[in-house]
């Protein structure tokens, strides 16, 4: 398992695990990780199967459960290396959904979690007839890969960020039929088991996000029965923390959230 690690500056205040999104990789979180490390947190991240520097072909991930267990291994490693500090979780997009399933499966593992723009609504209505075609293919060629249909222009309101996302060799748009339907299953399970989340949660999203449903994020927030906070960044798209006029505010607010729980 490939691991990135950012050491804390000064005394260690806590540990943060980062779970990246679909088609990207952990290296895209350098700015956030560096910010947290400068403020006393040791940060860990890994690349999901078929992403970034993982050895599998792009888009070869089999299931979100596999990603859940990979992050769990990373969390166990962090707790072994630094046993006396709180462990936090940050997950973006697919990493946000993975984080929800982690919190539901291992409710005592993390002190708190930040869920950035998680997909929480089925894509059945959006895909229409294509959904049923893919469903048929899932029995015939489950590892067939197709485009995840994420429009690079919808990543951020910062055009430079979007161009780099589109050009970066380690970013891809591949997803297997099997993985897509596992994601549909995990979205459903997230709602069914939401009551098992018992740690503080902060949900963040951009008001102009067209990659995931912001309405579903708000509904999920309302269903949470634990200590919670939600933050909408007006005018931002799928990754508010990459907007030049928002990044500093975003970083500051999640740092305040983490520090309030130490």
TrEMBL record:
Pfam families: Hydrolase_4. Residues 11-245 form the Serine aminopeptidase S33 domain. It comes from the Bacteria. It comes from Kosmotoga arenicorallina S304. InterPro entries: AB_hydrolase_1, AB_hydrolase_fold, Hydrolase_4, MAG_DAG_Lipase. The lineage of its organism: Bacteria, Thermotogati, Thermotogota, Thermotogae, Kosmotogales. This is Serine aminopeptidase S33 domain-containing protein. Transmembrane segments: none annotated. Gene3D superfamilies: alpha/beta hydrolase.
């Amino acid at each position: 398992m490939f691991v990135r690690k950012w050491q804390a500056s000064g005394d260690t205040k806590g540990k943060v695990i980062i779970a990246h999104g679909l088609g990207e990789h952990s290296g895209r979180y350098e700015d956030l990780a560096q910010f947290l490390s400068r403020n006393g947190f040791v940060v860990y991240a890994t690349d999901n199967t078929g992403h970034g520097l993982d050895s599998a072909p792009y888009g070869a991930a089999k299931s979100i459960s596999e990603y859940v267990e990979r992050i769990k291994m990373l969390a166990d490693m962090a707790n072994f290396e630094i046993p006396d500090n709180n462990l936090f979780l940050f997950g973006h997009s697919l990493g946000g959904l993975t984080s929800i399933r982690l919190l539901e499966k291992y409710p005592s593992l993390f002190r708190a979690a930040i869920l950035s723009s998680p997909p929480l609504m089925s894509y059945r209505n959006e895909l229409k007839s294509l959904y049923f075609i893919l469903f048929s293919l899932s029995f015939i060629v489950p590892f067939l890969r197709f485009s995840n249909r994420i429009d690079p222009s919808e990543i951020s309101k910062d055009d430079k960020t979007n161009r780099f996302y589109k050009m970066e060799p380690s970013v891809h748009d591949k997803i297997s039929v099997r993985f897509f339907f596992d994601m549909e299953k995990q979205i459903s399970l997230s709602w069914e088991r939401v009551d098992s989340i018992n740690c503080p949660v902060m949900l963040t999203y951009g008001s102009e996000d067209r990659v995931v449903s912001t309405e579903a994020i708000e509904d999920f927030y309302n269903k949470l029965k634990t200590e919670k906070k939600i933050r909408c960044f007006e005018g931002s798209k799928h990754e508010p923390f990459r907007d030049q006029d928002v990044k500093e505010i975003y970083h500051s607010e999640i740092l305040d959230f983490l520090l309030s729980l130490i």
